[in-house]
Specification:
nucleotide-binding; 7-stranded parallel sheet; HRDC_dom_sf
């Protein structure tokens, strides 16, 4: 018997592949007991290419592990000739555990990287010679060095995004010279100038090679290259491994597929079983693509295709919502969607709740969670899921206030994030300094916080694109919102506040949230929730601009956001609550609208493409704690072409950037001059008064009264009270009363 390529290396911490394992009770057919007809079809399809299309909660892991075990126990498979690959160490560990229980010890279940790394170490001396290059556990430091060699100053959060871009380029097999064109072709939102990224990428590769290092992407690349260049080694691998199973096949990247093709050999499918669900493709930003899953039958016309649609996880009510969500989907993945059929008893209907503002949404969610726990639901069987990690802070605080333990998955706790700790240092310093030119001119506490954080790059408008830079901005924006809420709360109690009191509040919150939580509610992003499930799930913050995220511009990017919500919905076994808030902060304008993905699903809403339904009817959307009479605002459409607007600046202007402007140029210049004078008088950046986009919107609409001015995005209640009279005077062609006589030149201080 040939030596196992994955055993005997210093990296192999698992059992020897030649162990025969414990004997299982009964014969091979005992493995099939308890499987439904479709799962049994998977388990008994031991030959030829097999494609399993498995919906959420349909028992795909059960089906493929029983398939492997049935093959081993029936003598069709030798355990050491089976390799099962997946995408996370947790999933691989779960698969190994199940195979042991089924009497299939000796089968290798690994991640792509773990399997490739062991093969690379085994064959390197023979194929290349000399010691194996040292693996970089983290490439950020080398990326930082490469950026420095290119003369670029890159912040720590930008480094993470730059590193992610290099990883995306490598898994999509894009070289430095081709990176800018690949970004343009894919519609990818690059975190910085693609030409700069390509330069850093090139220097990173050169430096890594010169020092004899490899990164995780190189592990796949080099292993594939060795198998391509050395037919004798490829034959040895294919003689060793004759049966392959690939889980989560919708998440495979071009580089992983290249390696898989080398493992399986010419024809590529005789001994291959792939499992996936195109409707759960949510990692395209990392280079994953469902194309290989969707095109499997085209590449392998003789393949056996089995669809798993019996949902054992969720109630019929949850499954009905999930099916309805996908029924509105578009694109290639949508054409292959699976209609799930729940196998569970009926449960409560999903609950849709609208709130006045985010803090109310979080506080009410926390109270409902506490009620569920009191009713007997374990805290560890409850989850709060959101689109971005920056949304977690308000839920961390709300749960802490009610002494409900929680655990944050896939991200650092809010007050442990580097940008929040750095901001805390700056705020403490400003508080100790007392009188400070940076904060003295700020109109309120939130203005002081904005002014302090501006020194670290905080801007009123979020940065374009996704990634670490956007996450950092979200964290800092949360600190500004906390300042607004803290000041309002103190004012309601008749108390004054200052920066020192706010810093003390932050310290108290941080201390309260450091308590360890063993049995706790899970707080997680929707991406981090993939592969998990809970009895009760709260999907929060479901507003336009958040889900779909504002930087999802292409149809495919929007559809991936829909799939992300589908993943969130299908995490729930029984209780499911979907909620959104009309404004960010208490007292703010109700300018938000529920996610378009809920149209036609939530009571009282109309399906996409139809006229909006009224809010009357039997119950409709459950009103949270919100003011009577507050209407739900519809989508913002271009005043010229009527296209629905998604960009923040376009939404403010109420027109597409490319559509003709009706702006009063003279009024715009007067507004800029007035703003500059106000900013100088306050000792604050000009954008703290009004952003350029808001001034442009005012100059286009030319409001005649306070009511019309209040409808313009960026003119909140506080700014309306403070600046409304002056702005209306300018719009009327008059000089504002009490304005400084010496007006500045009107140069915009607003960050680009």
């Amino acid at each position: 018997m040939q030596e196992d390529l994955l055993s005997g290396s210093p990296f192999d911490g698992h059992q020897d592949a030649h162990r025969t394992g414990h004997p299982a009770a009964g014969g091979p057919d005992a493995v099939l007991a308890g499987l439904d007809p479709e799962q049994r079809a998977v388990a008994t399809a031991l030959h030829g290419p097999v494609c399993v299309l498995a919906g959420a909660g349909t028992g795909k892991t059960r089906a493929i592990t029983h398939r492997i075990a049935y093959g081993v126990r029936s003598g069709v498979y030798q355990p050491q000739q089976v390799l099962a690959v997946t995408f996370t160490a947790r999933a691989a560990g779960e698969m190994r555990g199940r195979l042991r229980q089924l009497g299939a010890d000796g089968v290798q279940a690994r991640t792509f990287h773990a399997a490739a790394l062991r093969q690379l170490h085994y064959f390197w001396p023979r194929a290349i010679g000399g010691p194996v290059p040292q693996l970089l556990e983290r490439k950020v430091q080398l990326v930082a060095e490469a950026a420095g060699r290119c003369g670029l100053r890159v912040q720590r959060t930008e480094l993470r995004d730059l590193t992610a871009e290099i990883e995306w380029a490598k898994v999509t097999q894009t070289g430095p010279d081709d990176y800018p064109a690949a970004v343009a072709k894919s519609g990818r939102e690059a975190p910085r100038d693609p030409a700069e990224t390509a330069q850093v990428y090139r220097v990173y590769e050169e430096t890594k090679s010169r020092r004899g290092n490899i990164d995780f992407e190189d592990v796949l690349l080099l292993t594939a290259a060795i198998l391509e260049d050395r037919p004798d080694i490829a034959d040895q691998v294919r003689a060793q491994y004759r049966h392959f199973t690939v889980d989560e096949y919708q998440d495979v990247s071009p580089l992983q597929q290249r390696l898989l093709d080398q493992w399986t050999g010419p024809g590529g499918g005789a001994s291959l079983c792939v499992v996936g669900d195109a409707s759960q493709t949510i990692y395209s930003f990392t280079g994953a693509t469902p194309d290989y899953l969707l095109g499997f039958r085209t590449r392998h016309p003789e393949a056996t295709v089995v669809k798993l649609v019996r949902d054992y996880r969720s109630t019929p009510q949850v499954v009905h919502l999930a099916n309805g969500l996908l029924a509105q989907a578009r694109g290639e993945a949508a054409r292959h969607r699976l209609e799930l059929v729940s196998q569970r008893e009926a449960g409560p209907e999903p609950l849709y709740t609208e709130y006045e503002d985010e803090p109310t949404e979080a506080e009410t969610t926390a109270r409902r969670i506490k009620d569920l726990i009191a009713a007997g639901v374990r805290a560890s069987e409850i989850a709060v899921l959101f689109r971005t990690n920056g949304q977690s802070e308000v839920y961390e605080q709300a749960l802490s206030d009610l002494a409900v333990p929680y655990q944050l998955k896939g991200a650092e706790r809010f007050f442990e994030r580097p940008e929040v700790r750095d901001a805390g240092v700056l705020l403490r310093g400003a508080a100790r300094a007392g009188s400070d030119p940076v904060t003295d001119g700020a109109p309120d506490l939130a203005g002081q916080v904005r002014a302090v954080l501006a020194a670290r790059g905080f801007t009123p408008e979020p940065p374009a694109g996704s990634g670490a830079v956007r996450d950092r901005w979200e964290s800092l924006a949360a600190l500004v919102r906390l300042a607004e809420e803290f000041e309002r709360g103190r004012a309601a109690e008749g108390l004054t506040t200052d920066l020192a009191a706010y810093v003390a509040e932050l310290d108290a919150r941080a201390a309260a949230q450091h308590a360890p939580a063993v049995e706790g509610v899970t707080l997680a992003s929707l991406h981090a929730a993939k592969g998990l499930e809970w009895d009760a799930v709260f999907l929060v913050g479901l507003t336009e601009g958040t889900l779909p995220i504002i930087y999802a511009k292409t149809d495919e990017q929007v559809e991936e956001e829909r799939r992300l919500l589908y993943v969130g919905v299908t995490r729930a076994r029984k209780h499911l609550t979907l909620s959104w808030a009309l404004s960010r902060s208490p007292g703010g304008r109700a300018s938000r609208k529920p996610s378009r993905f809920l149209d036609g699903l939530r009571p009282g809403s109309s399906a996409p493409g139809s006229r909006p339904a009224g809010r009357g009817g039997r119950g409709g959307v459950e009103g949270g704690e919100r003011s009577a009479g507050r209407r739900v605002r519809g989508p913002v459409t271009c005043r010229v072409c009527e296209r629905v607007l998604t960009e923040a600046v376009e939404r403010k202007l109420r027109r597409c950037e490319t559509c003709p402007s009706t702006m009063d140029e003279a009024l715009y210049e007067r507004l800029r001059e007035w703003r500059a004078a106000q900013a100088r008088e306050q000792g604050a950046p000009a954008y703290v008064v009004f952003t350029d986009a808001t001034l442009m919107a005012i100059a286009e609409d030319v409001p005649a009264n306070r009511q019309e001015l209040a409808t313009i995005s960026g003119v909140g209640a506080m700014k309306l009270d403070k600046y409304g009279a002056a702005v209306l005077s300018l719009c009327a062609g008059e000089e504002p009363e009490g304005d400084p006589a010496d007006v500045m030149d009107g140069q915009s201080d607003e960050p680009a």
